[in-house]
UniProtKB/TrEMBL annotation:
Belongs to the binding-protein-dependent transport system permease family. The keyword Ion transport applies. InterPro entries: MetI-like, MetI-like_sf, NtrB. The keyword Ribonucleoprotein does not apply. This is Nitrate ABC transporter permease. Keywords: Cell inner membrane, Cell membrane, Ion transport, Membrane, Transmembrane, Transmembrane helix, Transport. It is a multi-pass membrane protein. It is found in: Cell inner membrane; Cell membrane. Its main location: membrane. Residues 102-286 form the ABC transmembrane type-1 domain. The chain crosses the membrane at residues 38-63, 109-128, 231-252, 264-286. PANTHER family: ALKANE SULFONATE ABC TRANSPORTER-RELATED, MEMBRANE SUBUNIT, NITRATE IMPORT PERMEASE PROTEIN NRTB. Pfam families: BPD_transp_1.
Amino acid sequence: MNQLAHKPPEQALNAAAGEVIVLPPVTVRRRKPQWRTFCLNLFQRLIPATLGMGLLVVAWQIAAINSKGFPTPLSTLESAITLFSDPFYNAGPNDQGIGWNILASLQRVAIGFGLAAIVGIPAGFLIGRFTFLARMFNPIIALLRPVSPLAWLPIGLLLFQKAEPASSWTIFICSIWPMVINTAEGVKRIPEDYLNVARVLKLSEWTVMRRILFPAVLPAVLTGVRLSIGIAWLVIVAAEMLTGGLGIGFWIWNEWNNLNVENILIAIVIIGVVGLLLEQGLMLLARRFSWEK
């Protein structure tokens, strides 16, 4: 009786002895070489950009053929080669190379933008930190922020009685607002838990500002700085057209008076390239300090 009770069923013995489980073939995924991935990404970015530039050149050529006095891409390229063959010549105060004009404009932007950063970022911290200050200054910011740069230039000329500080003043007052607003918004969005920990530890306001607020709000500050540098570079061209002297804006106006449209188009390209480089540099800096991946 005991042997019959422990005897395994006949079907189980047949299945264990005769069934063979066939596993599907395993496909081993090979990683693409790094150089191949890099080349593929490069081509995916390069080809659309090249097609876009080609489309722009074709549209430019059509516009030149169908208008009187508008230069062709080829004649503009020849003028650019002549212009950049000696970008730093100096033939007097009113006749200097394009390199000196670009450097003069960058110097004005650096002064106006630097002053805006020195004033705007701390002001944004205070406005974001203290509700009383926010209620005091937000109406002023909302009132002054949409004012055109050209409206600020006469005020600068009246205040400083000179063209050079008036240009820097115009850049300062136009580029300060994005830094103030972005910094204040960044401070407001800091999690309340961070500030509660600071209260429990009885940290001083300076320590809270230095150890908690500044590291947490740094990406928002850099976003404001990036927006401000674009505005500063836009404003300088208009300001220099009106104030004169050395600079890319006045150089465009001077070339227009000489009816040299090729050089105006070259200046437009230069302004775009310099603005792009400034913005990309600040975007790179912002990504470096951003925790949002």
